[in-house]
């Protein structure tokens, strides 16, 4: 047996045989890559781009809506302020009207009390005068009685005095 040649030794030591296998594998890889790009990755990329566009559009509309919401909040605040002012004015008006009614009723009550007081004072004056008249007549009667008794006693004493003296 002859010693193996150097080329034979290298051929045995190689891991891969690069005859037609490498170009076939490369062609298969490129065809698979092209097919996957056209069948899978392109529609998926298109779908993702459309979704991104829709999300951006929604975000822009939300930003536009935020200014609209701000305007509506400002408008509602001004409406609430106007309503509060209107309610306050109505309450003040009602308060004044009620106060006027109360003052009017108090005035009427005061007049009524004053008239009743005047009537009561007039009645008391009348009773006072009647009492004074009745007392005057009683005083006159009493003074007449006292004078009569005095004169009786005086006469009794003078008669007694005369009887005793003489």
UniProtKB/TrEMBL annotation:
Membrane topology field: Single-pass membrane protein
KW Amino-acid biosynthesis (keyword) present: no
Keyword entries, A-Z: CF(0), Coiled coil, Hydrogen ion transport, Ion transport, Membrane, Transmembrane, Transmembrane helix, Transport
GO-annotated biological processes: proton motive force-driven ATP synthesis
Chain coiled-coil ranges: 55-130
Membrane-spanning residues: 20-41
Keyword Translocase listed: no
Family in the record: Belongs to the ATPase B chain family.
PANTHER family attached to this UniProt entry: ATP SYNTHASE SUBUNIT B', CHLOROPLASTIC
Protein purpose: F(1)F(0) ATP synthase produces ATP from ADP in the presence of a proton or sodium gradient. F-type ATPases consist of two structural domains, F(1) containing the extramembraneous catalytic core and F(0) containing the membrane proton channel, linked together by a central stalk and a peripheral stalk. During catalysis, ATP synthesis in the catalytic domain of F(1) is coupled via a rotary mechanism of the central stalk subunits to proton translocation.
Protein name: ATP synthase subunit b', chloroplastic
Organism: Anisodus acutangulus
